[in-house]
UniProtKB/TrEMBL annotation:
Its EC number is 6.3.5.2. GO terms for cellular component: cytosol. This is GMP synthase [glutamine-hydrolyzing]. The lineage of its organism: Bacteria, Bacillati, Cyanobacteriota, Cyanophyceae, Oscillatoriophycideae. The gene is guaA. Homodimer. It catalyses: XMP + L-glutamine + ATP + H2O = GMP + L-glutamate + AMP + diphosphate + 2 H(+). Pathway: Purine metabolism; GMP biosynthesis; GMP from XMP (L-Gln route): step 1/1. Keywords: ATP-binding, Glutamine amidotransferase, GMP biosynthesis, Ligase, Nucleotide-binding, Purine biosynthesis. The keyword Magnesium does not apply. GO terms for molecular function: ATP binding; GMP synthase activity.
Length: 325
């Protein structure tokens, strides 16, 4: 039977045997896979591991700070925090097409990744949180024909990245490759990762950038981040966080008329997207109590400047997608 202690011990042995005295680079994403991966590698090889976190500026409120804090203070694993917020925003200036946003973000991510790995390296290995289903999906596509070893062609923390340039084709360490997601969660819990990471809702690589319809600006990011925080805060307070597959806010670039006090307002709507799903392939809008919708709506309109209307998305997938872009 599968026990976490046995798994950790075996992984540590395997990692040490494979890596020897070489250096390993790991890009944290804030999710459960890369966090668990960091723990295992650090246990196995200590400071031969470099963890970096590239902050694109599209995470949710407080998330980057919290991640670095958990690693530093709870696990004593140093994290190289790379603040790239400005350069991602610059890339997205004037861009409104969803796929173009993804492409530009992916491209910029690789550039930052390359610069940072040159600055911090050299590294022989890249640690990836590949899970069993990913191994099956990608079949043989990234096995080096000469050595039979798996070689990095993509960065898992970023679905949309076109591919790693040749000079970044590190060898891979993938200690989670035999696990399914529920086993990673079990392991994550056993090693003491907080529930906020263990059971975090899926969050897209391009983050809030694809939840702002149209152009991404720092003002819009602030509005969406504050609204999104209220959504999560209220459903957590109601003990409902785990009732949803995902629960988030979307900011629309249009404006509508409203009234506040004796002032006419002309501001953005926020869309609430609260959904249930088994696997993200199909999804249903959640039948939540009206009181919850009311509380969220009141708080967003009262607390977030720049928003004067909240609407609820009652479209399932299909025909809608989960995200709006
Ligand atoms: P859709 O919107 O296609 O989303 O119904 C299905 C699942 O995929 C997530 N998603 C993404 N994840 N990069 C990611 O890493 C992306 O560009 C991306 N787009 C959608 C979405 O959050 C949902 O869980």
């Amino acid at each position: 039977t599968w026990t976490t202690e046995a798994f950790v011990e075996e992984s540590v042995r395997e990692i040490r045997a494979k890596v020897g005295d070489k250096r390993v680079l790991l890009a944290l994403s804030g999710g459960v896979d890369s966090s668990t991966l960091a723990f295992l590698l650090h246990r196995a090889i200590g400071d031969q591991l470099t963890c970096m976190f590239i902050d694109q500026g599209f995470m949710r409120k407080g998330e980057p700070e919290r991640l670095v804090q958990i690693f530093d203070q709870q696990f004593h694993i140093p994290v190289v925090y790379v603040n790239s917020r400005e350069r991602f925003l610059t890339q997205l200036k004037g861009v409104t097409d969803p796929e173009e946003k993804r492409r530009l973000i992916g491209h910029e991510f690789i550039k930052v990744f390359e610069e940072e790995s040159n600055r911090l390296g050299p590294f022989d290995y890249l640690a990836q949180g590949t899970l069993y289903p990913d191994v099956i999906e990608s079949a043989d596509s990234n096995v080096d024909p000469q050595t039979g070893e798996r070689v990095a062609v993509k960065i898992k923390s970023h679905h949309n990245v076109g591919g790693l340039p040749k000079n970044l084709r590190f060898k891979l360490v993938e200690p989670l490759r035999k696990l399914f997601k529920d086993e990673v969660r079990k392991l994550a819990r056993a090693i003491g990762l907080p529930e906020e990471i263990v059971r975090r809702h899926p969050f897209p690589g391009p983050g809030l950038a694809i939840r702002i319809i149209g152009e991404v600006t720092s003002e819009r990011l602030k509005i969406l981040r504050d609204a999104d925080f209220i959504v999560r805060d209220e459903i957590s307070k109601q003990g409902m966080y785990h009732d949803f597959w995902q629960a988030f806010a979307v900011l629309l670039p249009v404006r509508s008329v409203g009234v506040m006090g004796d002032q006419r307002t002309y501001a953005h709507p926020i869309v609430l997207r609260l959904i249930t799903s088994e696997d993200g392939m199909t999804a249903d809008w959640a039948r939540v109590p009206y009181d919850l919708l009311e509380t969220i709506s009141n708080r967003i309109v009262n607390e977030v400047r720049g928003v004067n209307r909240v609407v609820y998305d009652i479209t399932s997938k299909p025909p809608g997608t989960i995200e709006w872009e």
